[in-house]
Amino acid sequence: MIAASLFITLTTSPRLGLDLRGGTQIVLQTHDSPYAKADRGATDRTVEVLRKRIDALGVSETGLTRSGDNRVIVELPGVQDSGEALGVIRRTAQLSFHSVADTGGRAMLDEKGRPLNVGPAALSGKDVGKAQAGFDPQNLRGWFVTVGFRHDAAWQRLTAKAACAAPGDPVRRIAILLDDKVISSPQVDPSVQCGTGIPGGSTQITGEFGEKEAKNLAALVQGGALPVPVDVVEQRTVGPTLGAEAIDASARAAVIGVVLTALFVIWVYRLVGVIAAVGLAAYALISYAALAAMGATLTLPGLAGFVLAIGMAVDANVLVFERAREEQAAMPRRGVRVALVRGFHNAWSAIADSNMTTLLAAGLLFFLSSGPVRGFGITLSIGVLASFVSALLVTRVLAEWATGRRAVMARPSLTGLAGAGRVRRWIERRDPDLMRRRRLWLSVSGVAVALAVTGIVVRGLNLGVEFTGGRLVEYSTSRSVDADTARRAVSGAGFPHAVVQASGRDDVSVRTGNLTDDQEHRIREALQRHGGVVTKQRDERVGPSLGNELREKAVIALGAALGGQLVYLAVRFRWTFGAGAVLAMLHDVVIVTGLFAWSGRPVDGVFLAALLTIIGYSVNDSVVVFDRIRELWRADPKEPLARSANRAALQTVPRTVNTGMGALFILAALALLGGDSLTDFAVALLAGILVGTWSSVFTATPTALVLEGRTSAIAARRQAHAVRR
């Protein structure tokens, strides 16, 4: 498996999303017209027409896919000025060819503003076989468009009729209409005789065309008419430098975070820690190769998810090593290899359940989201599966081989398993009864939730453009511009209600409602007076209907995550445990959301990805504690549940601390070195891990105990009532 992964890594280049390599993504929505219904078939035909148009524009490696029944996603790598592409894409391009009459017909103006009587259509865009832009090297006609027809007879009949008029007569012209507007009205050559027409089935459209106008016209004519009209509901443009900076920043953060995580694991677990570090390297190789082999698109949130999963992949190793330490302490004469084997066996259920809950959250990200957030769900899913393989296959094989060597067996302290560890020894000396104060812990959690809800109500959420609709443009300036100066400049350009923020030393973001390209150009000119050279780094435009839809999807995703986790945990454990874990997850989500409300940080699609990851991480912690409670309760059913829960919480603290440290190294590196694009993502996850570590012990477990006590009390009262009857 490692050899195959290495081969794929060396021979296959990853497919980068537009937010990493730069370009424009446009989401179109088809809608009904008086002539056609915007169903799945019409949308498929629209995709084919758009593909012809974009191919004619010469944009390489374009991507066109249908999403649902009436959406089309267009990806244009390298295209920074999307205005021209949108002009070609959005037009229905109803092309038609008409005869010209001396009287009657429709009175129209030709391409030069002269009056023209246009007769009924004789040919349409469906009759066009090929259209191509050309240039006259003698510069007599300039740029022109050559149009070839599928059947030359119709074209010959149309020109034969026009040839019957006298040379110079307006009736001797052919009117070419695009979207009911005359774009050209060429004269039939005087040499063409009346009734004969032009054979060969081709013509040239001439006019005062530049190169771009000619190529765009050829693309429209070649593509033909769209079956149904389309509207732009979302548009994102990312500059190539911003994507390159994100890749470099993420790579630096990944290297530093992984090195620190590996050093921490080696420091805590010694020899098996070295093997775990090798397993982490194998995990990174396997998961990266899987992404490359699947042809998955690596987006910025996906890249962050890949880096984060490296830190979370250490969790399975820590679970096994801590269980092996317990086995070695209980039966030291059996040797560390036996303890390690039993550690893998005993940790299996906790690893399986925790990974399943994370996969559930990742699956919801994939099915209930779109764009970069969906890419995050894919990379997180692959990361979970790869960590499962690396821990239970790679690490296990190497660890069992190493601990079976005679030199290692003679000095078991080298393995890092022949000892309780610093955290465990401290806990064993103190032996605190945490669950005795369970109502106090629940009160503390309640106060934290109340503060978070207060922030959400009082401060409100700074919803990103994905959820509100509108336009967000980020600029980089050659001179430093503070936020107040940027706000005054944008307000002076006619946008006093725009949200203007300055981040870093030379970055300015402007968010407002509907903003045309001309208005955006005015804002850029206003900023140039203070910031020097202004470069557009990112441009996001989301329609209000799509914003409402994304908000609904976010609520559905969170609700489905909570409901799905509750059902899974109720089946695997008890309904009281499931309810405790779900309430702890809700506790974590509300507190992190409240933190973003108080701090004014943006709540956008990347924040949603972080929030669903927090749900997976939170339930992951709770599952480990509940798994230990179930094990202790089965071993001694007569022991009070509160005592078993307290022992379970104390026994899993080393695992929680060591796993959290591994993830914290990665996230701290992302927050400090990952750049502006990943800072909010890392901050949300940092807060989520800290709060989730608390809630798994001090919220989920006490809640389960309170619910279990009430359930037992109700059952006892019912039994006593039945006895009296």
Mean pLDDT: 79
Give the strand content.
Answer: 15-25%
Strand order of the largest sheet: 3-4-2-13-19-16-18-17
First-to-last CA distance:
67 Å
Q: Percent helix among the residues? A: 55-70%
What is the rounded Rg? Answer: 33 Å
**Helix count, DSSP H or I runs of 4 or more residues:** 21
Enumerate the spans where pLDDT stays under 50 for 5 or more consecutive residues. Answer: none
What does the main sheet amount to?
8 strands, antiparallel
Give the overall form.
elongated
Number of domains: 4
Number of strand segments: 20
Structural class: alpha+beta
At a glance:
The protein contains 21 helices and 20 strands. It has 725 residues and is α+β, with helices and mostly antiparallel strands. A hairpin with a 3-residue loop joins β3 and β4.
Main attributes of the structure:
725 residues; Alpha-Beta Plaits; Gyrase A, domain 2; 8-stranded antiparallel beta sheet; 5-stranded antiparallel beta sheet; 20 strands; 62% helix; 16% strand
Describe this structure in words.
The chain has 725 residues and is α+β, with helices and mostly antiparallel strands. It has 4 domains: 23-92, Alpha-Beta Plaits, CATH 3.30.70.3220; 95-223, 2-Layer Sandwich (Gyrase A, domain 2); 239-460 and 547-712, no CATH class; 470-542, 2-Layer Sandwich (Alpha-Beta Plaits). Strands 3-4-2-13-19-16-18-17 form an 8-stranded antiparallel β-sheet. α9 (336-368) runs antiparallel to α19 (605-635) and α19 (605-635) packs antiparallel against α20. The chain is elongated and about 110 Å long. 48% of the residues are buried. The mean pLDDT is 79.
